[in-house]
Specification:
This protein has 13 helices and eleven strands. By secondary structure, the protein is an alpha/beta fold. It has helices at 17-20, 28-33, 50-64, 75-78, 87-102, 118-122, 130-146, 159-167, 179-202, 226-244, 288-299, 318-337, 380-391, and strands at 10-14, 68-72, 106-112, 152-157, 209-220, 252-264, 267-268, 306-311, 342-348, 367-370, 375-378. Bound molecules: D-gluconic acid.
């Protein structure tokens, strides 16, 4: 099997507004971070001040050797109150897109990455159908202002995670455990994705549009146990299949994978003895990426090009990061060798950043940030992955 990726394979890194910008106070996550009894280890605060330092981060991304940068636009900044749109916020994101182009970087823009404006939540949130229309209106205004500069659009980041962790596990906002609200939130996210695709395609510019879906290598344990297989299939229907079903006709599917999930006869079980458990609570299991790419390809019948829009590891051991990514990329090469149409790989994340309820403890970045000075320090894994990107090959 070759170590070379196909001509035109895309190499990128990713962040999200709330995790890097700082001062993002007008959304449900800022409220969640400061709520009585919040599960968040730390508030996002200034994050890594990318609201002001985006130019240097994009320049670093380009200097390392990447050709695209995935970031999200913050709905609560663009529409701070119902129907009140901020030209200043839209102009800010135009400047971010323009900085990408100035550095030869394709801007990959995510329209919703976990955060929702406080006023939208106050008027119902994602388990309420009216939120879909509010998201569509925001998206239409945003694509109208930014579309001519967008290289690729991701509609909603990991709606399955927002629904599951927010409406069943109560660890994300709105912090409820209610099956009926969960089902309604899933239905609303599915509708929002399906209805926003034509809106993004209909705006200025001409760019691929797709969903970015959290996927895991769901493994039945024991593999030949009928109950375990049935339970695994049920979990996957909830967490993946219903989302894959609404991607038909999209321009790409973003596969976002970090590890595997083992499922026994009665539900999710823990890691396997002998496998390291990372700070995020899941196993060091880079092989999951190949499994998820293959499943997405098989499930969609090879009808939608795939893009790895998130893969990475939260670790203080940068050599472990390089090993993780190298193994994950071997899996991508294996998929490509079997004719699977994988268009690119995006490492999560460009920068160490606010990892939601885990605060700043898990370090996913290929660039370290000294948050007392906001100084960026490129890690050896970042230099290495940049060399891989420039070579378009899995090199040492
Ligand atoms: C997610 C989100 C990112 C995370 C990353 C590491 O997949 O949960 O897209 O915001 O920071 O995945 O957990």
């Amino acid at each position: 099997m070759t170590n070379n990726f196909p001509e035109g394979f895309r190499w990128g890194t990713a962040t999200a507004a709330h995790q890097v910008e700082g001062g993002n106070w007008n959304n449900d996550w800022w409220a969640w971070e400061h709520a009585e009894g919040s599960p968040c280890e730390a508030p996002s605060g200034d994050a890594v001040d990318q609201w002001h330092l985006y130019e240097q981060d994009i320049a670093l991304c380009a200097a390392l050797g990447f050709d695209n940068y995935r970031f999200s636009i913050e709905w609560s900044r663009i529409e701070p109150e119902p129907g009140e749109f901020s030209r200043a916020a839209l102009d800010h994101y135009r400047r971010v897109c323009a900085a990408c182009h100035a550095h030869g970087i394709e801007p990959v823009v995510t329209f919703h990455h976990f955060t929702t404006p406080r006023w939208v939540v106050a008027e119902g949130g994602w388990h309420t159908a009216s939120t879909v229309d509010r998201f569509l209106r925001f998206s239409e205004v945003a694509v109208g202002a930014l579309g001519d500069l967008i290289g690729r659009a991701c509609t909603i980041n990991e709606p399955n995670i927002v629904a599951m962790i927010g409406y069943q596990m109560a660890f994300f906002p709105p912090g409820v455990s209610d099956l009926d609200q969960y089902r309604r939130a899933c239905d609303n996210f599915l509708a929002a994705h399906q209805r926003v695709v034509p809106i993004l395609r209909g705006g200025p510019g001409d760019f691929p549009v797709g969903l970015t879906l959290s996927m895991a290598d769901y493994q039945a344990v024991p593999a030949d146990d009928a109950d375990a297989v049935s339970t695994r299939d049920s979990v996957r229907r909830d967490m993946e299949d219903q989302y894959l079903d609404v991607c038909a006709g999209d321009d790409f599917l973003g596969v976002q994978t970090y590890s595997r999930t083992r499922v026994g006869p009665t539900g999710v079980i823990g890691g396997e003895p002998g496998y390291d458990i990372l700070e995020m609570g899941y196993e060091f299991y880079p092989e999951a990426l190949e499994a998820c790419i293959r499943r997405a390809w098989d499930y969609t019948g090879g009808s939608i090009p795939l893009l790895v829009t998130e893969n990475g590891i939260g670790t203080n051991d940068d050599e472990q990061r390089r090993r993780y990514v190298a193994t994950a990329l071997e899996g991508v090469l294996s998929c490509l060798a079997d004719g699977i149409d994988v268009r690119g790989y995006t490492y999560w994340s460009l920068l160490d950043n606010f990892e939601w309820c885990f605060g700043y403890r898990p370090r996913f970045g290929i660039i370290d940030v000294d948050r007392s000075t906001q100084r960026r320090i490129v890690k050896p894994s970042g230099e290495w992955l940049g060399r891989v990107a420039r070579a378009n090959a899995l090199i040492e």
